[in-house]
């Protein structure tokens, strides 16, 4: 992708952002224009042509037009669709706040690109085990098949507030949010 095409893509994204909400990327079906040398690293940092993108506003802008189709990730505008590489998932949760909403505990997560989401049936949290290290890898659905990995520090906060609950004859440590129980690990 040339610098001119990259600037054109940025202009298109900025125009779609003027409405003050996320662009309707799932309603856009432009032609595929090829892959670009953009990578979202496992640590949540964004890189273009091997260099980190240091401007937070630019990363946030790109994050608003990110779409996942099957197992591939794309930046999508009304007129272009370009493929990018995502090493794990595109976002990282950097903070959690515990709130009381009408007597129910709600966990509100914030990502490194400024998205906020409440763990709920619509935005479930899950924990996988790394196949090599057996360390837990927690995730939460942010939007439209796009997940965030929950940063280790935030995960430790969740572990601190975890309580045992019996589910189908198995006792699990987990957390509640918006009336849902999210499993962290079985009780040994």
List the helices and strands and how they pair.
Layout: H1 3-17, E1 32-40, E2 46-48, E3 51-52, H2 56-63, E4 66-69, E5 72-76, E6 81-86, E7 91-101, E8 104-111, E9 116-118, E10 125-129, E11 136-143, E12 146-150, H3 152-161, E13 163-167, E14 170-177, E15 180-186
Parallel strand pairs: 1-6, 7-12
Antiparallel strand pairs: 1-2, 2-3, 4-5, 5-6, 7-8, 8-9, 10-11, 11-12, 13-14, 14-15
User: How do the strands line up in the largest sheet?
Assistant: 3-2-1-6-5-4
Q: How many angstroms separate the termini?
A: 52 Å
Class by helix and strand content? alpha+beta
Compute the CA-based radius of gyration. 18 Å
User: DSSP helix count?
Assistant: 3
Protein name: Proteophosphoglycan
Domain DUF1285: 23-89, 90-184
InterPro entries: DUF1285, DUF1285_beta_roll_sf, DUF1285_C, DUF1285_N
Overview of the structural elements:
The protein is α+β, with helices and mostly antiparallel strands and 188 residues long. The chain folds into two domains: 3-86, Roll (duf1285 like fold); 91-186, duf1285 protein (duf1285 protein fold). Helices cover 18% and strands 47% of the residues. It has helices spanning 3-17, 56-63, 152-161; strands at 32-40, 46-48, 51-52, 66-69, 72-76, 81-86, 91-101, 104-111, 116-118, 125-129, 136-143, 146-150, 163-167, 170-177, 180-186. The chain has a six-stranded mixed sheet. Strands 9-8-7-12-11-10 form a six-stranded mixed sheet. It is elongated. It starts with a helix and ends with a strand.
């Amino acid at each position: 992708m040339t610098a001119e095409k990259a600037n054109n893509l940025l202009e298109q994204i900025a125009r779609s952002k003027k409405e003050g909400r996320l662009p309707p990327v799932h309603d856009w079906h432009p032609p595929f224009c090829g892959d670009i040398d953009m990578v979202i690293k496992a640590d949540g940092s964004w890189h273009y042509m091997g260099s980190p993108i240091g401007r937070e506003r630019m990363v946030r802008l790109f994050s608003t037009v990110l779409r996942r189709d099957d197992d591939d990730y794309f930046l999508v505008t009304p007129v272009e669709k370009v493929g990018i590489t995502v090493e794990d998932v595109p976002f990282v949760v950097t903070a959690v706040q515990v709130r009381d909403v009408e007597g129910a505990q709600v966990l509100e997560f914030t990502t490194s690109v400024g998205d906020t989401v409440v763990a709920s049936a619509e935005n479930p949290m899950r924990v996988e085990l790394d196949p090599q290290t057996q360390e837990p890898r927690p995730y939460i659905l942010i939007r439209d098949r796009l997940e965030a990995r929950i940063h280790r520090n935030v995960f430790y906060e969740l572990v601190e507030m975890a309580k045992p609950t019996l589910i189908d004859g198995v006792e699990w440590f987990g957390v509640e949010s918006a009336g849902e129980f999210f499993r962290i690990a079985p009780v040994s």
